[in-house]
Amino acid sequence: MIENEAPDSHLPMLATPQAERLRALVAACVRARYGADSGFVLVGDAVKRDGHLFPLANLARRCEEAPDDDWPTLVDAHFAALADASQGGEDADELLTGTCLRLVPADAAGPAVPVHTREVAEGLRLALALEGPDSVRLLTDEDVARAGADELWAAARRGLTRAPMRHEEVRLDGHPVLYSVYGDAHSVATKAVVLPEVVAEVTGRRMPDAGALVAVPTRHLLAFHPIVDGGAADALDDLATYAARAHEEGPGPLSPRVYWWHDGRLTSLTEIDDEARTLEQRPPRELVDVLRALRALDRAGRLASAAPAVLEAGREPFAAALADALAHAEADPDAARVETWDAWVAAQQHGCALFADGKDSELPAEGGELAEVDDAARAWLDAFYLTLVTRDRERTTRLCQVPLDSLRGGAPVDDYVPHWIDVLQSHWLRRPVDDVVDRLVTTIKASHPDTATLAPKDFLNLVDYQPVALFHRLLTLDHEAFGEALAESLVQHAGYWGDAAAPRARVALGPLALACLAYDMDFPVRTDLPYLPRYLLNRQRLEGTSS
To answer: What is the pTM of this model?
Structure first.
Protein backbone atom coordinates (compact mmCIF):
# COMPACT_ATOMS: atom_id res chain seq x y z
CA MET A 1 0.00 0.00 0.00
CA ILE A 2 1.21 3.53 -0.77
CA GLU A 3 2.47 5.15 2.41
CA ASN A 4 0.21 7.87 3.86
CA GLU A 5 -2.61 7.00 1.41
CA ALA A 6 -6.01 5.90 2.75
CA PRO A 7 -7.07 2.33 1.92
CA ASP A 8 -9.65 1.95 -0.81
CA SER A 9 -13.19 1.53 0.54
CA HIS A 10 -13.87 -1.52 -1.68
CA LEU A 11 -10.42 -3.08 -1.96
CA PRO A 12 -8.84 -2.10 1.38
CA MET A 13 -5.64 -4.09 0.73
CA LEU A 14 -4.76 -1.34 -1.78
CA ALA A 15 -4.48 2.41 -1.40
CA THR A 16 -7.14 4.36 -3.30
CA PRO A 17 -4.82 5.36 -6.22
CA GLN A 18 -3.68 1.73 -6.55
CA ALA A 19 -7.27 0.44 -6.58
CA GLU A 20 -8.23 2.99 -9.24
CA ARG A 21 -5.29 1.89 -11.41
CA LEU A 22 -6.30 -1.76 -11.00
CA ARG A 23 -9.88 -1.01 -12.06
CA ALA A 24 -8.61 0.85 -15.12
CA LEU A 25 -6.47 -2.15 -16.08
CA VAL A 26 -9.43 -4.49 -15.54
CA ALA A 27 -11.73 -2.33 -17.68
CA ALA A 28 -9.17 -2.23 -20.50
CA CYS A 29 -8.64 -6.00 -20.31
CA VAL A 30 -12.37 -6.73 -20.39
CA ARG A 31 -12.93 -4.44 -23.39
CA ALA A 32 -10.01 -5.99 -25.27
CA ARG A 33 -11.07 -9.56 -24.52
CA TYR A 34 -14.87 -9.34 -24.84
CA GLY A 35 -15.59 -6.11 -26.66
CA ALA A 36 -17.03 -2.81 -25.50
CA ASP A 37 -20.62 -4.09 -25.77
CA SER A 38 -20.07 -7.35 -23.90
CA GLY A 39 -22.39 -6.49 -21.01
CA PHE A 40 -19.69 -6.41 -18.32
CA VAL A 41 -20.21 -3.95 -15.48
CA LEU A 42 -17.31 -2.87 -13.26
CA VAL A 43 -18.30 -2.21 -9.63
CA GLY A 44 -16.18 -1.34 -6.60
CA ASP A 45 -14.77 -4.80 -5.87
CA ALA A 46 -16.01 -7.01 -8.73
CA VAL A 47 -16.96 -7.37 -12.38
CA LYS A 48 -20.50 -8.56 -13.12
CA ARG A 49 -22.00 -10.06 -16.24
CA ASP A 50 -25.24 -11.98 -16.81
CA GLY A 51 -25.49 -13.69 -13.48
CA HIS A 52 -21.71 -14.09 -13.07
CA LEU A 53 -19.84 -12.20 -10.39
CA PHE A 54 -16.06 -11.95 -10.72
CA PRO A 55 -14.61 -10.64 -7.43
CA LEU A 56 -11.38 -8.67 -7.64
CA ALA A 57 -10.18 -9.24 -4.07
CA ASN A 58 -7.83 -12.15 -4.89
CA LEU A 59 -6.44 -10.28 -7.89
CA ALA A 60 -5.92 -7.19 -5.73
CA ARG A 61 -3.97 -9.23 -3.16
CA ARG A 62 -1.70 -10.60 -5.87
CA CYS A 63 -1.12 -7.11 -7.22
CA GLU A 64 -0.43 -5.80 -3.72
CA GLU A 65 2.54 -8.15 -3.47
CA ALA A 66 3.83 -7.59 -7.04
CA PRO A 67 5.79 -4.73 -8.69
CA ASP A 68 3.64 -2.18 -10.46
CA ASP A 69 5.06 -3.16 -13.86
CA ASP A 70 3.71 -6.72 -13.41
CA TRP A 71 0.10 -5.65 -12.86
CA PRO A 72 -1.03 -5.71 -16.52
CA THR A 73 0.32 -9.28 -16.88
CA LEU A 74 -1.44 -10.38 -13.69
CA VAL A 75 -4.75 -8.89 -14.87
CA ASP A 76 -4.52 -10.60 -18.29
CA ALA A 77 -3.67 -13.96 -16.67
CA HIS A 78 -6.53 -13.56 -14.22
CA PHE A 79 -9.17 -13.06 -16.91
CA ALA A 80 -7.65 -15.76 -19.12
CA ALA A 81 -8.21 -18.18 -16.26
CA LEU A 82 -11.75 -16.93 -15.82
CA ALA A 83 -12.46 -17.64 -19.48
CA ASP A 84 -11.88 -21.31 -18.70
CA ALA A 85 -13.98 -21.19 -15.54
CA SER A 86 -17.57 -22.35 -15.18
CA GLN A 87 -19.90 -21.22 -17.94
CA GLY A 88 -22.64 -23.71 -17.12
CA GLY A 89 -23.36 -27.31 -17.97
CA GLU A 90 -22.09 -28.89 -14.74
CA ASP A 91 -23.60 -32.24 -13.85
CA ALA A 92 -25.74 -32.84 -10.76
CA ASP A 93 -22.84 -34.03 -8.56
CA GLU A 94 -20.75 -30.97 -9.40
CA LEU A 95 -23.65 -28.67 -8.57
CA LEU A 96 -24.48 -30.41 -5.29
CA THR A 97 -20.84 -30.27 -4.22
CA GLY A 98 -20.04 -26.69 -5.16
CA THR A 99 -23.30 -24.76 -4.69
CA CYS A 100 -23.67 -22.29 -1.85
CA LEU A 101 -26.34 -19.86 -0.67
CA ARG A 102 -25.94 -16.20 -1.46
CA LEU A 103 -28.04 -13.21 -0.39
CA VAL A 104 -28.42 -10.76 -3.27
CA PRO A 105 -30.23 -7.43 -3.58
CA ALA A 106 -33.77 -7.90 -4.84
CA ASP A 107 -32.90 -6.09 -8.08
CA ALA A 108 -29.62 -7.97 -8.65
CA ALA A 109 -31.07 -10.18 -11.37
CA GLY A 110 -33.03 -8.49 -14.10
CA PRO A 111 -35.45 -10.12 -16.56
CA ALA A 112 -32.55 -10.87 -18.96
CA VAL A 113 -30.84 -12.98 -16.30
CA PRO A 114 -33.28 -15.74 -15.24
CA VAL A 115 -31.36 -16.84 -12.16
CA HIS A 116 -33.00 -19.10 -9.59
CA THR A 117 -33.82 -17.15 -6.40
CA ARG A 118 -36.26 -17.12 -3.52
CA GLU A 119 -37.63 -14.08 -1.75
CA VAL A 120 -36.26 -13.61 1.77
CA ALA A 121 -37.45 -10.16 2.78
CA GLU A 122 -38.07 -6.76 1.29
CA GLY A 123 -34.95 -5.79 -0.64
CA LEU A 124 -33.36 -9.25 -0.37
CA ARG A 125 -33.48 -12.49 -2.32
CA LEU A 126 -31.65 -15.75 -1.73
CA ALA A 127 -29.80 -17.28 -4.65
CA LEU A 128 -27.98 -20.52 -5.33
CA ALA A 129 -24.41 -19.81 -6.43
CA LEU A 130 -21.60 -21.93 -7.81
CA GLU A 131 -18.47 -20.47 -6.32
CA GLY A 132 -14.91 -20.79 -7.63
CA PRO A 133 -11.63 -19.15 -6.51
CA ASP A 134 -12.17 -16.01 -8.59
CA SER A 135 -15.75 -16.21 -9.82
CA VAL A 136 -19.28 -16.78 -8.62
CA ARG A 137 -22.07 -17.86 -10.95
CA LEU A 138 -25.70 -17.62 -9.88
CA LEU A 139 -27.56 -20.74 -10.92
CA THR A 140 -30.39 -20.61 -13.41
CA ASP A 141 -33.60 -22.61 -13.39
CA GLU A 142 -31.96 -24.90 -15.96
CA ASP A 143 -29.06 -25.59 -13.59
CA VAL A 144 -31.40 -26.32 -10.71
CA ALA A 145 -33.48 -28.70 -12.77
CA ARG A 146 -30.41 -30.89 -13.39
CA ALA A 147 -29.75 -31.45 -9.67
CA GLY A 148 -33.18 -30.96 -8.11
CA ALA A 149 -34.27 -27.83 -6.25
CA ASP A 150 -34.88 -29.41 -2.84
CA GLU A 151 -31.55 -31.25 -2.90
CA LEU A 152 -29.61 -28.14 -3.98
CA TRP A 153 -31.20 -25.85 -1.38
CA ALA A 154 -30.58 -28.37 1.40
CA ALA A 155 -26.94 -28.94 0.39
CA ALA A 156 -26.29 -25.21 0.11
CA ARG A 157 -27.83 -24.55 3.54
CA ARG A 158 -25.64 -27.21 5.17
CA GLY A 159 -22.59 -25.59 3.63
CA LEU A 160 -23.60 -22.17 4.90
CA THR A 161 -23.59 -23.21 8.56
CA ARG A 162 -20.00 -24.45 8.13
CA ALA A 163 -18.71 -21.30 6.42
CA PRO A 164 -15.99 -19.55 8.51
CA MET A 165 -16.61 -16.20 10.17
CA ARG A 166 -15.11 -13.86 12.74
CA HIS A 167 -17.03 -11.76 15.22
CA GLU A 168 -16.67 -9.05 17.82
CA GLU A 169 -18.82 -6.99 20.17
CA VAL A 170 -19.37 -3.32 19.38
CA ARG A 171 -19.81 -1.45 22.67
CA LEU A 172 -20.21 2.29 23.07
CA ASP A 173 -20.68 3.95 26.45
CA GLY A 174 -24.37 4.01 27.31
CA HIS A 175 -25.39 2.10 24.17
CA PRO A 176 -26.65 -1.47 23.82
CA VAL A 177 -24.15 -4.00 22.52
CA LEU A 178 -24.14 -4.86 18.82
CA TYR A 179 -22.55 -8.03 17.51
CA SER A 180 -20.56 -7.72 14.29
CA VAL A 181 -19.93 -10.84 12.19
CA TYR A 182 -17.50 -10.43 9.32
CA GLY A 183 -15.02 -12.19 7.06
CA ASP A 184 -13.52 -12.37 3.59
CA ALA A 185 -16.06 -14.90 2.34
CA HIS A 186 -18.94 -13.56 0.28
CA SER A 187 -21.34 -15.74 2.28
CA VAL A 188 -20.91 -13.98 5.66
CA ALA A 189 -24.01 -11.80 5.31
CA THR A 190 -25.95 -14.79 3.99
CA LYS A 191 -25.68 -16.32 7.47
CA ALA A 192 -28.62 -14.06 8.33
CA VAL A 193 -30.85 -16.84 7.00
CA VAL A 194 -29.53 -19.14 9.76
CA LEU A 195 -29.40 -16.38 12.38
CA PRO A 196 -30.37 -18.56 15.39
CA GLU A 197 -27.25 -20.68 14.79
CA VAL A 198 -25.14 -17.51 14.50
CA VAL A 199 -26.59 -16.03 17.71
CA ALA A 200 -25.85 -19.25 19.60
CA GLU A 201 -22.26 -19.42 18.31
CA VAL A 202 -21.46 -15.74 18.87
CA THR A 203 -23.23 -15.10 22.19
CA GLY A 204 -23.33 -18.57 23.73
CA ARG A 205 -27.10 -18.19 24.24
CA ARG A 206 -30.11 -19.25 22.21
CA MET A 207 -32.09 -16.82 20.11
CA PRO A 208 -34.48 -14.89 22.41
CA ASP A 209 -38.19 -15.50 21.97
CA ALA A 210 -38.57 -11.88 20.81
CA GLY A 211 -35.99 -12.49 18.08
CA ALA A 212 -33.21 -10.14 17.03
CA LEU A 213 -32.57 -6.99 15.04
CA VAL A 214 -30.22 -7.67 12.13
CA ALA A 215 -28.55 -5.81 9.27
CA VAL A 216 -26.69 -7.12 6.21
CA PRO A 217 -25.16 -3.97 4.72
CA THR A 218 -22.52 -5.80 2.62
CA ARG A 219 -21.77 -9.33 1.48
CA HIS A 220 -18.97 -9.54 4.04
CA LEU A 221 -20.79 -8.13 7.08
CA LEU A 222 -23.70 -9.06 9.33
CA ALA A 223 -24.61 -7.17 12.51
CA PHE A 224 -27.28 -8.08 15.03
CA HIS A 225 -28.72 -7.31 18.46
CA PRO A 226 -30.73 -9.97 20.36
CA ILE A 227 -33.98 -8.52 21.72
CA VAL A 228 -33.64 -9.36 25.41
CA ASP A 229 -34.55 -6.05 27.07
CA GLY A 230 -35.86 -2.57 26.42
CA GLY A 231 -32.45 -1.45 25.17
CA ALA A 232 -33.38 -2.96 21.81
CA ALA A 233 -35.24 0.27 21.00
CA ASP A 234 -31.93 2.15 21.20
CA ALA A 235 -30.13 -0.68 19.40
CA LEU A 236 -32.50 -0.20 16.45
CA ASP A 237 -31.27 3.37 15.98
CA ASP A 238 -27.63 2.35 16.38
CA LEU A 239 -27.99 -0.54 13.96
CA ALA A 240 -29.72 1.68 11.40
CA THR A 241 -26.82 4.15 11.47
CA TYR A 242 -24.29 1.31 11.31
CA ALA A 243 -26.04 -0.37 8.38
CA ALA A 244 -26.48 2.78 6.30
CA ARG A 245 -22.83 3.80 6.69
CA ALA A 246 -21.44 0.32 6.02
CA HIS A 247 -23.70 -0.12 2.98
CA GLU A 248 -22.47 3.16 1.52
CA GLU A 249 -18.78 2.68 2.26
CA GLY A 250 -18.14 -1.07 2.33
CA PRO A 251 -17.32 -3.43 -0.54
CA GLY A 252 -20.12 -5.57 -1.95
CA PRO A 253 -23.12 -3.46 -0.87
CA LEU A 254 -26.17 -5.56 -0.09
CA SER A 255 -28.88 -3.68 1.85
CA PRO A 256 -29.06 -0.53 4.03
CA ARG A 257 -32.14 -1.87 5.82
CA VAL A 258 -32.59 -3.13 9.37
CA TYR A 259 -34.60 -6.33 9.68
CA TRP A 260 -36.41 -8.09 12.51
CA TRP A 261 -35.77 -11.81 12.77
CA HIS A 262 -38.81 -13.37 14.42
CA ASP A 263 -40.52 -16.74 14.10
CA GLY A 264 -38.14 -17.85 11.37
CA ARG A 265 -38.57 -14.88 9.04
CA LEU A 266 -36.99 -11.51 8.31
CA THR A 267 -39.21 -8.42 8.30
CA SER A 268 -37.87 -5.10 7.01
CA LEU A 269 -38.16 -2.23 9.50
CA THR A 270 -36.80 0.39 7.09
CA GLU A 271 -38.82 2.59 4.78
CA ILE A 272 -36.72 3.93 1.88
CA ASP A 273 -37.66 7.08 0.01
CA ASP A 274 -35.55 6.88 -3.15
CA GLU A 275 -36.62 10.30 -4.35
CA ALA A 276 -35.74 12.07 -1.11
CA ARG A 277 -32.81 9.68 -0.49
CA THR A 278 -33.90 9.04 3.09
CA LEU A 279 -34.15 6.00 5.35
CA GLU A 280 -36.68 5.83 8.17
CA GLN A 281 -37.25 3.03 10.65
CA ARG A 282 -40.91 2.00 10.94
CA PRO A 283 -41.22 -1.15 13.08
CA PRO A 284 -44.57 -2.96 12.93
CA ARG A 285 -47.01 -2.66 15.81
CA GLU A 286 -46.14 -6.17 17.00
CA LEU A 287 -42.49 -5.21 17.51
CA VAL A 288 -43.38 -1.84 19.05
CA ASP A 289 -45.51 -3.63 21.64
CA VAL A 290 -42.67 -6.05 22.43
CA LEU A 291 -40.15 -3.21 22.87
CA ARG A 292 -42.52 -1.17 25.05
CA ALA A 293 -43.31 -4.17 27.22
CA LEU A 294 -39.62 -5.00 27.68
CA ARG A 295 -38.74 -1.40 28.48
CA ALA A 296 -41.51 -1.28 31.10
CA LEU A 297 -40.21 -4.52 32.61
CA ASP A 298 -36.71 -3.10 32.72
CA ARG A 299 -37.91 -0.02 34.55
CA ALA A 300 -39.54 -2.40 37.01
CA GLY A 301 -36.12 -3.91 37.65
CA ARG A 302 -36.40 -7.10 35.56
CA LEU A 303 -32.93 -6.84 34.02
CA ALA A 304 -30.72 -9.63 35.27
CA SER A 305 -27.62 -8.34 33.53
CA ALA A 306 -27.56 -4.66 34.43
CA ALA A 307 -26.02 -3.07 37.49
CA PRO A 308 -28.34 -0.89 39.58
CA ALA A 309 -26.68 2.32 38.36
CA VAL A 310 -27.75 1.56 34.81
CA LEU A 311 -31.38 1.50 35.86
CA GLU A 312 -31.46 4.54 38.13
CA ALA A 313 -31.69 7.19 35.40
CA GLY A 314 -35.28 8.26 34.88
CA ARG A 315 -36.73 6.12 37.64
CA GLU A 316 -40.12 6.99 39.02
CA PRO A 317 -39.91 7.67 42.79
CA PHE A 318 -41.62 4.36 43.55
CA ALA A 319 -39.19 2.33 41.45
CA ALA A 320 -36.25 4.08 43.09
CA ALA A 321 -37.64 3.50 46.61
CA LEU A 322 -38.31 -0.16 45.88
CA ALA A 323 -34.80 -0.65 44.47
CA ASP A 324 -33.40 0.94 47.63
CA ALA A 325 -35.42 -1.40 49.87
CA LEU A 326 -34.35 -4.48 47.97
CA ALA A 327 -30.73 -3.37 47.88
CA HIS A 328 -30.59 -3.41 51.69
CA ALA A 329 -30.57 -7.20 51.47
CA GLU A 330 -26.95 -7.16 50.34
CA ALA A 331 -25.67 -5.93 53.72
CA ASP A 332 -28.69 -7.01 55.79
CA PRO A 333 -30.13 -10.21 54.27
CA ASP A 334 -32.29 -10.97 57.34
CA ALA A 335 -33.71 -7.40 57.50
CA ALA A 336 -32.60 -7.13 61.10
CA ARG A 337 -31.78 -3.43 61.00
CA VAL A 338 -34.30 -0.67 61.57
CA GLU A 339 -33.07 1.25 58.51
CA THR A 340 -33.94 -1.76 56.36
CA TRP A 341 -37.47 -1.80 57.74
CA ASP A 342 -37.77 1.93 57.17
CA ALA A 343 -36.73 1.47 53.53
CA TRP A 344 -39.40 -1.19 53.01
CA VAL A 345 -42.08 1.00 54.58
CA ALA A 346 -40.99 3.96 52.45
CA ALA A 347 -41.21 1.85 49.30
CA GLN A 348 -44.66 0.63 50.26
CA GLN A 349 -45.85 4.19 50.88
CA HIS A 350 -44.51 5.38 47.53
CA GLY A 351 -46.22 2.50 45.75
CA CYS A 352 -49.57 3.00 47.43
CA ALA A 353 -49.42 6.76 46.87
CA LEU A 354 -49.44 6.12 43.11
CA PHE A 355 -52.97 4.77 43.46
CA ALA A 356 -54.20 7.05 46.27
CA ASP A 357 -56.29 10.20 46.15
CA GLY A 358 -54.19 12.01 48.72
CA LYS A 359 -56.22 11.03 51.76
CA ASP A 360 -54.60 9.36 54.75
CA SER A 361 -51.20 9.16 53.05
CA GLU A 362 -47.83 10.12 54.49
CA LEU A 363 -46.74 11.16 51.00
CA PRO A 364 -48.19 13.69 48.56
CA ALA A 365 -50.76 12.13 46.27
CA GLU A 366 -49.12 10.88 43.11
CA GLY A 367 -52.29 9.99 41.28
CA GLY A 368 -51.43 12.53 38.62
CA GLU A 369 -48.11 10.77 38.06
CA LEU A 370 -49.70 7.39 37.47
CA ALA A 371 -50.38 8.29 33.86
CA GLU A 372 -46.64 8.76 33.42
CA VAL A 373 -45.87 5.31 34.83
CA ASP A 374 -45.63 3.15 31.73
CA ASP A 375 -46.15 -0.07 33.68
CA ALA A 376 -49.09 0.68 35.99
CA ALA A 377 -50.21 -2.95 36.29
CA ARG A 378 -46.80 -4.12 37.44
CA ALA A 379 -46.43 -1.12 39.72
CA TRP A 380 -49.71 -2.17 41.35
CA LEU A 381 -48.40 -5.72 41.85
CA ASP A 382 -45.22 -4.44 43.48
CA ALA A 383 -47.20 -2.14 45.77
CA PHE A 384 -49.58 -4.97 46.67
CA TYR A 385 -46.68 -7.30 47.50
CA LEU A 386 -45.14 -4.61 49.70
CA THR A 387 -48.35 -4.17 51.70
CA LEU A 388 -48.38 -7.91 52.39
CA VAL A 389 -44.74 -7.85 53.54
CA THR A 390 -45.25 -4.80 55.79
CA ARG A 391 -48.65 -6.12 56.93
CA ASP A 392 -50.44 -2.86 56.17
CA ARG A 393 -53.88 -4.42 55.74
CA GLU A 394 -55.69 -1.14 55.26
CA ARG A 395 -53.54 -0.21 52.30
CA THR A 396 -53.87 -3.71 50.88
CA THR A 397 -57.63 -3.22 50.89
CA ARG A 398 -57.36 0.20 49.24
CA LEU A 399 -55.22 -1.22 46.47
CA CYS A 400 -57.75 -3.97 45.89
CA GLN A 401 -60.41 -1.31 45.37
CA VAL A 402 -58.47 0.26 42.49
CA PRO A 403 -60.52 -0.42 39.32
CA LEU A 404 -58.81 -2.94 37.10
CA ASP A 405 -59.54 -0.87 34.00
CA SER A 406 -57.42 1.97 35.39
CA LEU A 407 -54.37 -0.31 35.27
CA ARG A 408 -54.68 -1.27 31.62
CA GLY A 409 -53.06 1.82 30.12
CA GLY A 410 -49.40 2.42 29.35
CA ALA A 411 -47.09 -0.29 28.12
CA PRO A 412 -48.82 -3.41 26.81
CA VAL A 413 -48.70 -6.47 29.05
CA ASP A 414 -49.68 -10.06 28.52
CA ASP A 415 -53.26 -10.88 29.53
CA TYR A 416 -52.16 -12.97 32.47
CA VAL A 417 -50.99 -9.84 34.34
CA PRO A 418 -54.42 -8.16 34.74
CA HIS A 419 -55.97 -11.60 35.30
CA TRP A 420 -53.53 -12.16 38.17
CA ILE A 421 -54.42 -8.78 39.66
CA ASP A 422 -58.08 -9.74 39.39
CA VAL A 423 -57.36 -12.94 41.35
CA LEU A 424 -55.60 -11.07 44.13
CA GLN A 425 -58.27 -8.39 44.41
CA SER A 426 -61.08 -10.95 44.40
CA HIS A 427 -59.42 -13.05 47.07
CA TRP A 428 -58.60 -10.13 49.35
CA LEU A 429 -62.09 -8.63 49.07
CA ARG A 430 -63.56 -12.03 50.04
CA ARG A 431 -65.50 -12.70 46.89
CA PRO A 432 -66.91 -16.23 46.45
CA VAL A 433 -64.22 -18.88 46.32
CA ASP A 434 -65.61 -20.32 43.09
CA ASP A 435 -65.15 -16.91 41.44
CA VAL A 436 -61.57 -16.73 42.68
CA VAL A 437 -60.87 -20.24 41.40
CA ASP A 438 -62.32 -19.38 37.97
CA ARG A 439 -60.13 -16.28 37.79
CA LEU A 440 -57.07 -18.30 38.85
CA VAL A 441 -57.70 -20.89 36.14
CA THR A 442 -57.95 -18.07 33.59
CA THR A 443 -54.64 -16.65 34.84
CA ILE A 444 -52.89 -20.01 34.59
CA LYS A 445 -54.11 -20.55 31.03
CA ALA A 446 -53.15 -17.02 29.98
CA SER A 447 -49.65 -17.43 31.42
CA HIS A 448 -48.84 -20.49 29.35
CA PRO A 449 -45.65 -19.77 27.33
CA ASP A 450 -47.48 -20.52 24.09
CA THR A 451 -50.14 -17.93 24.92
CA ALA A 452 -48.13 -15.09 26.46
CA THR A 453 -46.12 -13.26 23.78
CA LEU A 454 -44.70 -10.12 25.40
CA ALA A 455 -42.86 -11.25 28.54
CA PRO A 456 -39.66 -13.21 27.83
CA LYS A 457 -40.36 -16.88 28.50
CA ASP A 458 -37.53 -17.32 30.99
CA PHE A 459 -38.78 -14.35 33.00
CA LEU A 460 -42.36 -15.61 32.76
CA ASN A 461 -41.53 -19.14 33.89
CA LEU A 462 -38.82 -18.48 36.47
CA VAL A 463 -40.10 -15.26 38.05
CA ASP A 464 -43.53 -14.00 37.05
CA TYR A 465 -45.46 -17.26 37.34
CA GLN A 466 -44.06 -18.31 40.73
CA PRO A 467 -46.48 -16.24 42.91
CA VAL A 468 -49.37 -17.69 40.89
CA ALA A 469 -48.21 -21.23 41.65
CA LEU A 470 -47.84 -20.35 45.33
CA PHE A 471 -51.31 -18.81 45.49
CA HIS A 472 -52.79 -22.00 44.05
CA ARG A 473 -51.33 -23.97 47.00
CA LEU A 474 -52.42 -21.26 49.41
CA LEU A 475 -55.99 -21.37 48.15
CA THR A 476 -56.21 -25.13 48.59
CA LEU A 477 -54.73 -24.85 52.12
CA ASP A 478 -52.17 -27.54 51.20
CA HIS A 479 -49.36 -26.80 53.65
CA GLU A 480 -46.93 -29.38 52.33
CA ALA A 481 -47.45 -28.46 48.68
CA PHE A 482 -47.04 -24.78 49.52
CA GLY A 483 -43.70 -25.46 51.21
CA GLU A 484 -42.48 -27.43 48.21
CA ALA A 485 -43.65 -24.73 45.79
CA LEU A 486 -41.99 -22.01 47.88
CA ALA A 487 -38.64 -23.84 47.84
CA GLU A 488 -38.98 -24.39 44.09
CA SER A 489 -39.77 -20.72 43.47
CA LEU A 490 -36.51 -19.74 45.16
CA VAL A 491 -34.56 -22.21 43.03
CA GLN A 492 -36.16 -20.63 39.97
CA HIS A 493 -35.37 -17.14 41.28
CA ALA A 494 -31.71 -18.09 41.64
CA GLY A 495 -31.75 -19.66 38.17
CA TYR A 496 -33.00 -16.48 36.57
CA TRP A 497 -30.90 -13.91 38.41
CA GLY A 498 -27.68 -15.84 38.99
CA ASP A 499 -25.07 -13.47 40.41
CA ALA A 500 -26.63 -10.34 38.90
CA ALA A 501 -26.14 -7.06 40.74
CA ALA A 502 -29.74 -5.92 40.13
CA PRO A 503 -31.64 -5.19 43.39
CA ARG A 504 -34.39 -7.69 42.56
CA ALA A 505 -31.80 -10.45 42.46
CA ARG A 506 -31.42 -10.24 46.23
CA VAL A 507 -35.05 -10.70 47.30
CA ALA A 508 -37.77 -12.83 45.69
CA LEU A 509 -40.47 -10.19 46.17
CA GLY A 510 -43.52 -12.11 44.91
CA PRO A 511 -42.72 -15.35 46.75
CA LEU A 512 -41.87 -13.33 49.88
CA ALA A 513 -45.28 -11.63 49.79
CA LEU A 514 -47.13 -14.95 49.37
CA ALA A 515 -44.97 -16.51 52.10
CA CYS A 516 -45.91 -13.64 54.45
CA LEU A 517 -49.58 -14.21 53.66
CA ALA A 518 -49.21 -17.95 54.31
CA TYR A 519 -47.27 -17.31 57.54
CA ASP A 520 -50.12 -15.11 58.76
CA MET A 521 -52.53 -17.96 57.93
CA ASP A 522 -50.52 -20.25 60.22
CA PHE A 523 -48.86 -22.22 57.45
CA PRO A 524 -45.65 -23.84 58.71
CA VAL A 525 -43.43 -21.59 56.56
CA ARG A 526 -39.67 -22.00 56.93
CA THR A 527 -37.94 -18.74 57.85
CA ASP A 528 -34.39 -19.79 56.98
CA LEU A 529 -34.74 -19.82 53.19
CA PRO A 530 -32.60 -17.65 50.88
CA TYR A 531 -34.05 -14.54 49.23
CA LEU A 532 -36.69 -14.24 52.00
CA PRO A 533 -35.54 -11.76 54.70
CA ARG A 534 -36.22 -13.60 57.94
CA TYR A 535 -37.47 -10.69 60.05
CA LEU A 536 -39.84 -9.47 57.35
CA LEU A 537 -41.32 -12.94 56.93
CA ASN A 538 -41.82 -13.73 60.64
CA ARG A 539 -43.02 -10.21 61.58
CA GLN A 540 -40.32 -9.74 64.22
CA ARG A 541 -39.12 -6.47 62.71
CA LEU A 542 -42.71 -5.24 62.54
CA GLU A 543 -43.42 -6.33 66.13
CA GLY A 544 -40.10 -4.95 67.34
CA THR A 545 -40.76 -1.48 65.92
CA SER A 546 -44.36 -1.35 67.08
CA SER A 547 -43.76 -2.29 70.70
So the answer is: 0.70
